[in-house]
Every structure is written in structure tokens, then in C-alpha cells.
Prior knowledge:
Elements: E1 28-36, E2 41-48, E3 69-75, E4 82-84, H1 104-110, H2 115-118, E5 143-147, E6 157-170, E7 176-186, E8 198-203, H3 211-214, E9 222-226, E10 235-239, E11 260-263, E12 273-282, E13 285-287, E14 293-297, E15 304-306, H4 308-321, E16 327-328, E17 337-339, E18 357-361, E19 366-369, H5 371-374, E20 375-377, E21 382-385, E22 387-389, E23 398-400, H6 402-405, E24 408-413, E25 418-424
Parallel strand pairs: 3-8, 4-7, 14-23, 15-22
Antiparallel strand pairs: 1-2, 1-10, 2-3, 4-8, 5-6, 6-7, 9-10, 9-24, 11-25, 12-13, 12-14, 12-18, 15-23, 16-17, 17-21, 18-19, 20-21, 24-25
Bound molecules: 2-acetamido-2-deoxy-beta-D-glucopyranose (6 copies).
Amino acid sequence: xxxxxxxxxxxxxxxxxxxxxxxxxxxxxxxxxxxxxxxxxxxxxxxxxxxxxxxxxxxxxxxxxxxxxxxxxxxxxxxxxxxxxxxxxxxxxxxxxxxxxxxxxxxxxxxxxxxxxxxxxxxxxxxxxxxxxxxxxxxxxxxxxxxxxxxxxxxxxxxxxxxxxxxxxxxxxxxxxxxxxxxxxxxxxxxxxxxxxxxxxxxxxxxxxxxxxxxxxxxxxxxxxxxxxxxxxxxxxxxxxxxxxxxxxxxxxxxxxxxxxxxxxxxxxxxxxxxxxxxxxxxxxxxxxxxxxxxxxxxxxxxxxxxxxxxxxxxxxxxxxxxxxxxxxxxxxxxxxxxxxxxxxxxxxxxxxxxxxxxxxxxxxxxxxxxxxxxxxxxxxxxxxxxxxxxxxxxxxxxxxxxxxxxxxxxxxxxxxxxxxxxxxxxxxxxxxxxx
Length: 436
Ligand SMILES: *[C@@H]1O[C@H](CO)[C@@H](O)[C@H](O)[C@H]1NC(C)=O
Ligand SMILES: *[C@@H]1O[C@H](CO)[C@@H](O)[C@H](O)[C@H]1NC(C)=O
Ligand SMILES: *[C@@H]1O[C@H](CO)[C@@H](O)[C@H](O)[C@H]1NC(C)=O
Ligand SMILES: *[C@@H]1O[C@H](CO)[C@@H](O)[C@H](O)[C@H]1NC(C)=O
Ligand SMILES: *[C@@H]1O[C@H](CO)[C@@H](O)[C@H](O)[C@H]1NC(C)=O
Ligand SMILES: *[C@@H]1O[C@H](CO)[C@@H](O)[C@H](O)[C@H]1NC(C)=O
């Protein structure tokens, strides 16, 4: 029998220590990058793992520079973490060891917490005890299906084997935070399905096999996300309940003081994050939304996507309040664009200001989407309303997409079943890229 193995996925961290109560609140901070992939914009977290030895065991407090830097896609919906790597080999006595088909987590990940349960129409062949994975006999491992979020339509189905990992987060004070989890791994020759340097998916959902479920004291089951708008200056993913201090010179400011909270809603099928939206308001006028509609928060949908009935209402009102800005021909995937060149004097979108689009949430809470998150510059003189028509039958009436999340501080608090949001940090003279 071989020793448990250790694999390190993540990793840059910081321990935030509240001044009065040392070591009570610990958070881990991981940089978040924005990429413009050929398919769509993506947000990834930096991780370090070695795809050929997959043992990383360090007593040092820093990640060795020899360890390759890999990127994992942030996914608020995925049921479990997975990545491309060399799967465990018997000859390796210090490798992560696979889950067998006899373990209950295998059945769980094939049924209740599978990608297939999220999307019954996917063409993946069902995984069963007779599913084979190269190099293993029946039931020795647990192959399960994954759906590649970068290619959700074609060639998206793949299989990973479920593996026990130990994840270490070396803390800056020299301590090491360790947690155990199961995650999928697959042969790295499939990595061409991802943009360069991207090796997998960090699941941040409410599934019991996603990363938040594995966090334990002193790190709480709370995820905070601050997506960068810049391609060059990273934002941040925080694991733990905070405090989340701004960097100097404002390091006394805890971002939690900027937040409003509403309850998260449970969805019967999906593991992602949902909130109730009572109305959408643009300049004092409420756009009717179906009663008690639920909005999904998504880092994988690049722009907010509205079912046609909601989309039409928003567009009608938005055009009314932007009458003074000349229209331009629509640029895919958007339906409403403006000529922002202002008589040829080169006014960029940064010079255009449009009315906020306010999501009215329960308890009178208001999530304001201001110009930086509602208008996207597509060419020198054209900017578009960064909202997409999801069609009359779209699964969710409202999906708040990544462009609208940039430079907003968001907290997904599974311990208290609530969602915290700041609206744009730009109003506070800071941004997600401030968190170094
Ligand atoms: C992984 O680590 C092993 C042992 O430290 C090393 O020999 C190997 O070159 C590394 N692989 C990569 C891809 O860096
Ligand atoms: C797979 O095999 C295990 C162990 O033999 C058993 O407990 C489990 O019920 C089987 N699952 C299916 C779907 O047949
Ligand atoms: C919104 O309505 C309130 C009261 O009806 C009014 O005082 C305020 O000026 C209006 N604001 C805008 C931007 O129209
Ligand atoms: C809205 O929906 C939620 C959950 O779907 C439910 O708990 C709540 O009672 C509903 N509110 C109204 C006003 O219908
Ligand atoms: C925008 O307006 C300017 C000035 O009216 C014009 O020269 C330019 O062609 C327009 N651009 C587009 C894309 O409509
Ligand atoms: C165009 O921009 C220049 C420089 O920003 C400014 O001096 C000028 O007044 C502007 N002209 C008009 C017509 O707005």
C-alpha cells in the first residue's frame, strides 16, 4: 500500500490577522488573471503544480521557483475541481492515490454532483463501474465526466479520474495550511482544449466537492472574488471570511465595510450562486421583471445575459435615457451600440457616462451597474451596452456575467447563506487590481 500523496494546487497566500485577535481570522489570497482567449474572456487563478511528478511537498514557506506556474479557470458552478496532469502511477510511491469505484464519493460524483446532472442533455457517455481509464482495470479507479467550460458546445466532454489530494497553502508567516480533497485529473495531452498555461478548473460552487466545502478552521467556508478589468494587473480570490484589507496606503480599510448582503437562493439542480431580483431600475423607472426572478452569478458568461422579455425591457429603457448619444451599428454579440466619437473629437467610453442599471434585490438592497460595467468599448468610436440577449427560452432569466463583476468585490458566504457585493470599487477610488 502506498503512502498518501500530496499535491499542491494553489498558492500564494497571506494570512490576515485581525489586530486584536491574533490568528482568529485567516484568509488565503490567490491572484486572479484576466485573459482574452480566442473563444471568450476568461478569469483564472494562479496555481503551482508540477504536471509530471505531481508530488509537491515542501517545508518551505514559499513556493519554490522551480515549480511551474499553472492557471486554473475560476468556475462558480462546477461540481468539483479537476485538472490535466499525469494521473497517478503505481510505480510512484509519493503520488496522489485514486478513488476507487467502491468509495461513496465515486457514486456521488457520477450522480448527484456530476456535470451530467447539471446538464442532462450533454452527449457524454454515462460513466459506470465498467468505465475504463487507460492503464487501469475496472473499478480500480473512478472515471467521471467533465465538461470543458472553454468549449461548452463542441468537443467539451472528457473523462477524469477522481483522486485524493492534499493541498497545501504555505502561509507567509511560515505556517502551512493543509486541507484534503478529491479532485479529478486527466492526461495532460488533452490540454490543447485550453488556452496556453491553463490546466484545469477551480470549482468555487456550493457543491460538497468544490473548494469552499473543504475549507476549515481557521479558514472559513467563504469565498471572496474581485475580478480585474485589466489584462496586466491581477485581481484577487480570497478564501476565508476576511477581513479583506485594502493595500497601503489604505490598509486600515476593510472592504467588508463597503458591502451589502442578501440571501443566497438554493437552486434545485445547480450548485452555483443565485440571488433574487425584484426589479431592474434605470433612472427612476422600474423595468418589469417576472415576479420574484432569480439571477445567477457567472464568471464564465462574459456578459450579462437576459432572457428576451427582460432584455427588451432593459434595452427600451436604456435607449430612452441615452437618446443624446448617437447610435452605431450593432457589433456582435451586442444589440445596442453607440458612436462615442462625439463629432470626431475622440471621446472614448471613459468620457461617456450613462445612467446606472440598478438591480433591486431583497430588502431594498441595490446593486448598481455603472458605466464601467455596463458599456464596453469595441472600437475606437463605438461602445456597446455589454448585455446579451439570451433568447426567449434561456434557462435563467438573468445571468450576471463577468464583465459586470469586474472591479466589484463579491463575497459568497456559504456559512451564512448570503451574498455580499460592493458595486463598483471605482467609486471608492480603488479597483480589484489594487490587491497586489
Ligand atoms: C517536476 O518535478 C520533478 C522533480 O522535482 C522534476 O524532475 C521535473 O522536471 C518537474 N517537471 C516539470 C514539468 O517541471
Ligand atoms: C460499483 O461498484 C461498487 C463496489 O463493487 C458498488 O458499491 C457500487 O454500487 C457499484 N456502482 C454501480 C453504479 O454499479
Ligand atoms: C427620482 O424620483 C424622485 C422622486 O420621485 C425625484 O425626487 C428624483 O429627482 C428622481 N431622480 C431622477 C434621476 O429622475
Ligand atoms: C420568492 O422566491 C423565494 C424562493 O424561490 C421564496 O422563498 C419567496 O417566498 C418568494 N417571494 C415572493 C414574494 O414570492
Ligand atoms: C461616428 O461619428 C463620426 C462623426 O459623426 C463619424 O465620422 C464616424 O464615421 C461615426 N462612426 C461610426 C462607426 O458610426
Ligand atoms: C476637442 O478636444 C480638444 C482637446 O481635448 C478641445 O480643446 C476642444 O475644445 C474639443 N472640441 C470640441 C468641439 O469639443
